[in-house]
Amino acid sequence: MLLVGAVDDVHAQNTREGDVTTFRVITPPDPNFIPMSVLRAKADEWMPGVDVELVMAPSGDPSAMRAMLYSRAADFALFSVLGGSRFVDAGISNLSLVGVHVWKGVHLLAQESVNSVRKLDAQRLIAVPAVMTPSHMVARYALHMQGVRADFVSGGGGPVLMAQLSRSESAPLGLVAPEPMVSIILQRQQRENWPVRYKVLMDSQAAASPQTGETPLGGLWVVEPYRVGSNKKAAQAFVDGFRRAVDYVGDPRHVDEVADIVSVAMKEVYGQNAPASVYRSMLKSGRLGLDFRDARAVEKVVVKELKRIYGVVVDEKVFRSVF
């Protein structure tokens, strides 16, 4: 398998190496990464003749992601349904949604002494990775539904964040974050014996959409329609393989294997050193909800939810298919 942090002129070409078609996939270090790392590990078995090249994405940096999508730095991308819809509306005409696979994975953590979200009203909270990302916006909406108006600031996701959370003098009363960061924080506070401890206080999706307990968060997008469209058989094999990977992640029988795969891939691609036990805990917790659903099948849900939660009107071009 191939890994890249930047795409050069050679990678940008529509190439075949032997009888293998390689698709480049932008994959951020969030819930989207989980099934894609499994697909990368299982590619030879699940989609012979098709390979995956992972392209690192800057987490929480919409401008950098916009540049990558505009320049068609990959064939596919995994990122938020909200972000992709905004990019299409802003004129990035090459994007189209293949399907939605992340329906739950953002949670509000609070110090253990906090027993109600109402205690967070008018408090300064941290948004991981940044404000105006889906993790922040869905949590903000859920809090507003309960009459809570918090002041959010961007928190990143690296050593600076961990240092802030682990010190009494700088620890916020609460924060919102996606998996696997939630599980990383919960395990690190135990292992390192932080003086301040956090707990999961609110499932942001369940609070924002109490009837279903889910919202459309992460999706699979076509970025380079010409190359995908001219390799339809391989592209369909890739999508089928990704769907299988999503199902595989959700099967309790594979928790240990998936945790090992994700731990190795996160270290290899993003330099994150979280042990497999973090991902094992995440997969067993029920905090992550993955289910691949075709874009056309969820079009009405996506349009309704993005309008209700984010105030975004989704352009119908989002749902056009190149297959």
In short:
With 323 residues, this protein is of the alpha/beta class. Helix content is 40%, strand content 22%.
Total individual domains: 2
The number of E-state strands comes to: 13
Briefly, what CATH class of the largest domain? Alpha Beta
What is the CATH superfamily label of the largest domain? Answer: Periplasmic binding protein-like II
CATH architecture of the largest domain: 3-Layer(aba) Sandwich
The helix fraction, in percent, is 40-55%
What do we call the CATH topology of the largest domain? D-Maltodextrin-Binding Protein, domain 2
Architecture overview:
The chain is an alpha/beta fold. It has 2 domains: 2-104 and 217-319, D-Maltodextrin-Binding Protein, domain 2 (3-Layer(aba) Sandwich); 106-208, Periplasmic binding protein-like II (D-Maltodextrin-Binding Protein, domain 2, 3-Layer(aba) Sandwich). 40% of the residues lie in helices and 22% in strands. It contains 12 helices and 13 strands. The strands form 2 sheets. Strands 1, 2, 3, 4, 5, 6, 12 and 13 form an 8-stranded mixed β-sheet that branches. Strands 9-8-10-7-11 form a 5-stranded mixed β-sheet, with helices on both faces. Helix 1 packs across helix 9 and helix 1 packs across helix 10. Residues 1-17 have low confidence and may be disordered.
SSE topology sketch:
Elements lengths: L1 E3 L11 E2 L2 E8 L5 H14 L3 E7 L5 H9 L5 E5 H9 L6 E9 L1 E6 L12 E4 L6 H12 L5 E4 L4 H7 L8 E5 L2 H11 L6 E6 H5 L9 E5 L2 H6 L1 H19 L4 H16 L5 H10 L3 E6 L4 H12 L13
Parallel strand pairs: 1-4, 3-4, 3-5, 8-9, 8-10
Antiparallel strand pairs: 2-3, 5-12, 6-12, 6-13, 7-10, 7-11
Helix pairs in contact: 1-9, 1-10, 6-11, 10-11
